[in-house]
Amino acid sequence: MTAPKVGADPLAEAQRRLLDALPERVLVCRLDGRVAWASSLALSLLGRSPGELEGVALTDLVVADARPPAGVALLDQLLSLPHGEGIAASAVHRSGTQLRVDLSASRVGEGTAVVMLRPLPATDLAAVVCAHDETYELVFEGAPVGIFHFDAEGVITACNDAFVRIIGSPRRILIGLRMETLPDETMKRSMRQALSGHRAHYEGEYRSATAGKVTSVKVDFAPIFGDGGRVVGGVCIAEDVTERVRAQEALQRSAESFRMLIESAPDAIAVHRGERFMLVNAALVRLLGYGDREEVLALRVEDVLHPDELDGYRRRVPMMLNDRQQLPMRELRLRKKDGETITTEVATIPIEYEGGTAILAFARDVTQRKALEARLAQADRMATVGTLAAGVAHEINNPLAYVMANLDLMGKQLSKLSAESEQDLGFFREALGHSKEGCERVRVIVRDLRIFSRAEEDRRVPLDVNAVIESALNMAGNELRNRADVVRELRPLPPVLGDEARLGQVVLNLLLNAAHAIPEGTPRAHTISVATADRGEWVEIRISDTGVGIPCELLGRIFEPFWTTKPVGVGTGLGLSIVHGIVRAHGGSIDVESEVGMGSTFRVLLPASRRASERPPRPQAAPPPSDAPVRASRILVIDDETRFGRALRASLGTHHDVQLATSGREGLGILLAGEEFDLVVCDLMMPDVSGMGIYDEVRRARPDLSERFVFMTGGAYTDQARAFFEHVTVPRLEKPFDVAEVERLLRRVQADGRSRRE
User: Fold this and answer.
1) Are 643 and 753 in the same domain?
2) Distance from C-alpha of 80 to C-alpha of 578, rounded to nearest angstrom
3) From start to end of 57-177, where are the E strands?
4) Residues 108-131 pLDDT 10s
5) Deepest of 119, 502, 526, 741, by most Cβ within 10 A of its Cβ?
6) Domain range for residue 729?
């Protein structure tokens, strides 16, 4: 190329055509850094029209990542680089969007330079499509289908690797390709439809104009809208369906090959026209539990469907046969020969078969998978219910505590009234006694509820199995008394090393199973026996009922998950499976004996832990006699449950000087101020400063006072609280408690104080 004369056109027409034919974005610049001419691909990249860039400074069109040295122009910097090397820069589109490019230049003649702008594909997408949206870029590049974008002129601006593989042409050729130059009229028509603001679909064989590759493709076009609803380009999803088309052609060419394909498939497959099966494979025969193919071919399709599926099936068949709609995969319940219902995933497509449209159905048995999903969901629900029950127990304990404290106070005050009407006072005493009895019953229920719903780790400690059974009997009492008489035979036992909540769940499940095996209405005619026995190395639990019994052929399945003899909606089939798992986890075993009409006996064996029973007890100071005198003392009550705090203060205030702090922060301030107290009764969990926080601060500042702490709790223990009590020996009162328990603790503190003085 010869150097142009000053003031003359730097390019001849032939040179323009040559540069425009290159698959590159080319700018021809004068050495003063201003554009003299731009190729069509460069114009498309920058969003400009022919002639618009003439005289525009190169620095107005591109921004280099690294600025040139002071006094050096951008074009001079490019020309100083070794041949073939460039710098990273951003090309500025007319819209203001910056597109990442590799910028290089070479001198042609004395007064002209050619500048190349090569888009960087990985970042070009982010600028054009979604303004540096990294998430979209990852999806774009990692998608298993081909994706490409084009601008408002129909020029491809970005494409992913999958599209390159489908078409067969390199990315450097595809990006910048004007789709109007394609020979395929249908493809061009779909592109124009997208640029007019409508979706379009193309399916067929596409011959690449640049690579010569022929591919069966399915392409969906969609418009991209900019500000004000204006179409600024389009996006396409392209899928290589060559293999699917070849498979369809092969099926059409040979009916025998089609039958062999169906027969060899591992999934159940059938061909039907809505009424009768026309073709079934061996996998479907096995799935439905029939002996041979002819039995299934003799059935109507509706004969193998669950009754609840019939309406939907009757709606879908005309859609497929008449409209040839391909429906998405769905779950479908089928009936086996023996009447059992199974859940399948079914995919259906309309096909040409034996001279007409038929339905090809693929079915896969997902019954076990659905059962597993249901089991996981049930386990999650059980964990949630357990956590909820523990929280409910805590919330009940707080109001129950101040109700019981107030009742105790009322009883004390009632005894001081003059006996003008002993009959009236007797009535009130009886009412108070009944109220306290009712509160005590609620307290026991909440205690047992906490045991069986405790949301904490499996903690193994020496347990009294008989005590666990008693708690379970309390929990199931209402259910049992309406079904049968309960007979206890609980003998002395060595301890068992186990988790109280989980073993309680075992006993409770077995008791409820025994109750449900007995019909309602005749509780005096039936018996549920609960017995324990010491079997040397084992502790035996035996629960028997006089219910309906279990047929011998079903005994082997009762511990399977989701298997139950109860009607639908009554049981989940999880109870005995969970029982079996818990017993095995504790190193034990469970078996059952049953006879129809005579009842069942479940026998649980758990390893005894005699070492735990022989371990010497932890030395504890002997409690003072309950009738020892209690001198008047100063007591600080710290509890954010103000009603309970006031009730406790009123009850204790008849003999003691009681101060009440209604928050942890207030209580801590009183203690750190130096006031003396004989006893500090502090709630464990408070929102501002917890009882544990108060104790730690007092132990550092006033260690003598920390020995007079007593914690109150409604039963909700965090991991932090459990760790705290593993290292700190502080008396605890479980709400609700009798006020007399506070005085017993006060006696102990006073006795300890006397012992230290002596």
Assistant:
1) yes
2) 78
3) 62-64, 87-92, 98-107, 112-119, 146-151, 156-159
4) 877 889 999 988 754 444 344 434
5) 119
6) 634-757
